[in-house]
Amino acid sequence: MADEKPISILLVDDEAEFRDTCAMWMSRHGHDVTEAADGHEALHACTRKNFDVVVLDLNMPGLSGLEVLDRLKGDGVESQVLVLTGEATVDTAVQAMKLGACDYLSKPFPLPELEERCRMAFQQGLLRKENQQLKEVIRRSRPTSPKMIGNSPRMKKVFQLIDRAGPTDRAILIQGESGTGKELVAKAIQSASLRADKPFVTINCAALPEQLVESELFGHEKGSFTGATDTRPGLFEVADGGTLFIDEIGELPLSLQPKLLRVLEDGSMRRVGSHKERRVDVRIITATNRDLAVEIANGNFREDLYYRINVLTVELPPLKDRDGDIEQLIDHILGSNWQLDEEARNCLLAYHWPGNVRQLINVLERATILADDGEIVIDDLPREVIASAARPNIGGDSTGLDASNVQEPAGTIRPDAASSVRLEDLERAHVVQILRASHGNKAQAARSLGIHRRKLYRMLDRFNVQPEEIHSR
């Protein structure tokens, strides 16, 4: 068993010779053993340290083993408890198991058997912890985000960094504007790491008040603050062995930054309201849309923490700087069930997307709700998107591009603003004329115009057509 992980053990027995013999055997076999001569010493030891296994004699003066076991479980101690007794009875075993003991061993016993039982208890504890982690990850899981899409040079550089950074297990800082997909990059890094099959847990520092950020990250003990009705592990414990993604790290309160720095330096942390030190093995990935150098200069961010989280930086470009990616993203988001007419497509390509990929997804999801017959047209897009592109000219090329960005040959005569207004007036007048000919019957008017009735309603709204115009003589 030399290649197996050492176990931290608390050995509780009032017989000094027996206790010392067991402790010596277990220590020689590589385990970390702490001794306690009675129940009070045992309870005190458990407030100072987390033990993998507590070996507890049931027959002790003062606090009995059953009383100690009851107190340990009531205090939320997570150690596996193996109980010992020289009076093996079924009733005692059943009572101990009901109180939370994981195993039962009768004195006398061979010392190798004690080690084997401790090993089995330790493995049970690992399985229980993994199960708790899985439940917590599921509880905190977010809806699956779209996969990363893009062939632009800047995105190819991002993909190269992901491939290199993933397996290193180093701290990564992702920088980029809001909506550029920083969490997707974090997930891609985790998928490329040796922790790919371990928990991936996220927290957004900007979404929680300071006290809750501390509790979410480090956990809390029952009664440690108002509303703490039970003991709860923090995200560092939930992510133990895996990856913790801290979004909007620039929003982390200054008072909590030393605690985060300590975890990054040696893996040690304490829950809110606890003096017990815990150790975790977690890879940290952080993200921000702030300039942390400015935050350091303003005294809002610790410089030593910055160097800890910024072993490697991944810079995510804004969507407007990702040449060629917008059209690819549009086709991926819409899939094969939706068509996009040329005017609407060119309008989307001309827009500057201040909200980046998140805004593009939102616009397209809105458009699929408004669209008729599986085809998205320009009137299904938000007004701010439509306003960014010029209306197409009659008989001209329907590019939908802002004419100010188009280089034209010298001497070209372009329609002025008044011409554009007149074109829209003509379109409005035509719609009103058809409605009058249909005596206000919108279904009939829509058929005459060759459009769906819902699109006609949107045109009436856009042109601000009043009922009295339709029915006037």
CATH architectural name of the largest domain:
3-Layer(aba) Sandwich
Largest sheet: 5 strands, parallel
The residue-averaged pLDDT reads 84
Within the largest sheet, what's the order of strands? 2-1-3-4-5
Look at the structure and name the CATH superfamily of the largest domain: P-loop containing nucleotide triphosphate hydrolases
Walkthrough of the structure:
With about 475 residues, the protein is α/β, with parallel strands linked by helices. The protein folds into four domains: about 10-130, Response regulator (Rossmann fold); about 155-315, P-loop containing nucleotide triphosphate hydrolases (Rossmann fold), CATH 3.40.50; about 320-405, Orthogonal Bundle (Helicase, Ruva Protein, domain 3), CATH 1.10.8.60; about 415-473, Arc Repressor Mutant, subunit A. About 45% of the residues lie in helices and about 15% in strands. It contains 20 helices and 16 strands. The strands form five sheets. A five-stranded parallel beta sheet has the order 2-1-3-4-5, with helices on both faces. A five-stranded parallel beta sheet has the order 7-10-13-6-14, with helices on both faces. Helix 2 runs parallel beside helix 3 (about 65-75), helix 10 packs across helix 12 (about 305-310) and helix 13 packs across helix 15. The radius of gyration is 33 Å and the shape is elongated. Mean pLDDT is about 85; it is low at about 140-145 and about 390-420.
